[in-house]
């Protein structure tokens, strides 16, 4: 019998129930970091980067070690990836060496191509379209601060067409969070992602709001989130990625319009004085350092969960 391999290429690859299982496991692993050892042996995980990284690299390498495994961390440019070998063949070959592949790359189609050849889970460690591991950590952080996720109001401000906006929308509504995306004209989420998020929201009862009005977007929000205005790979895209974004900066005046106990998230790296001010990032409502830490716990939980899907040995 052929085993169906479960990949994590985008946030809605997990059902609401599955996402809740991963988040519960993440909370448990935060308290007991060595409780799960599915990679004992050691078994290997390939961790490949085609873009820069600090948090993703450190959290995956450390997390894999804590699960008893060995991380093979490589710069994609030093491999044969997409050079002389198809991505599908690469997925087929890597599956003979490692138990999972974690990959930071450009277009989502590259991840889909590798997954089509792989017999082991492929995990999206950031693509142009999605950053689903980050959003698991964001949801874990929100749950720690707010208890239940269902019915929370989250407002993202900035580039609505980037990976974080897309993943917050898709992963957020999966958790039952009402998501508002506020960005300047021309920077709204891609229609096919909105469609997927609306389909998921119909299952969970969550809402999605798209707006170009940052002031109205934050009123009553439980969480404000932002991200760089220029994502990796967009440095020379010819668009003005500063001027139109200024009204979307998270500063103390904007934060004051959110709920009194609102928290502020940022996946980091932050561009202080651009999308967020020092006063907010370093202020009492900022949870960005816990959020960064939770990358470790959430990704460990994800790996444990994905590996258990393969063996049928549910954690
Ligand atoms: N937030 C995030 O993914 O950070 P890195 O780019 O440093 O991995
Ligand atoms: N949107 C950003 C996220 C960095 C973690 C980027 O893709 O560069």
UniProtKB/TrEMBL annotation:
L-ornithine binds at residues 163, 227, 231-232. Carbamoyl phosphate binds at residues 53-56, 80, 104, 131-134, 267-268, 295. Signal peptide: none annotated. GO terms for biological process: citrulline biosynthetic process; L-arginine biosynthetic process via ornithine. It is an enzyme of class 2 (transferase). Residues 150-306 form the Aspartate/ornithine carbamoyltransferase Asp/Orn-binding domain. GO terms for cellular component: cytoplasm. Residues 6-144 form the Aspartate/ornithine carbamoyltransferase carbamoyl-P binding domain. Pathway: Amino-acid biosynthesis; L-arginine biosynthesis; L-arginine from L-ornithine and carbamoyl phosphate: step 1/3. Keywords: Cytoplasm, Transferase. It comes from the Bacteria. It is found in: Cytoplasm. Pfam families: OTCace, OTCace_N. GO terms for molecular function: amino acid binding; ornithine carbamoyltransferase activity. It catalyses: carbamoyl phosphate + L-ornithine = L-citrulline + phosphate + H(+). HAMAP family: OTCase. Belongs to the aspartate/ornithine carbamoyltransferase superfamily. OTCase family. PANTHER family: ORNITHINE CARBAMOYLTRANSFERASE, MITOCHONDRIAL, ORNITHINE TRANSCARBAMYLASE, MITOCHONDRIAL. This is Ornithine carbamoyltransferase. It comes from Rhodococcus wratislaviensis (Tsukamurella wratislaviensis). The lineage of its organism: Bacteria, Bacillati, Actinomycetota, Actinomycetes, Mycobacteriales.
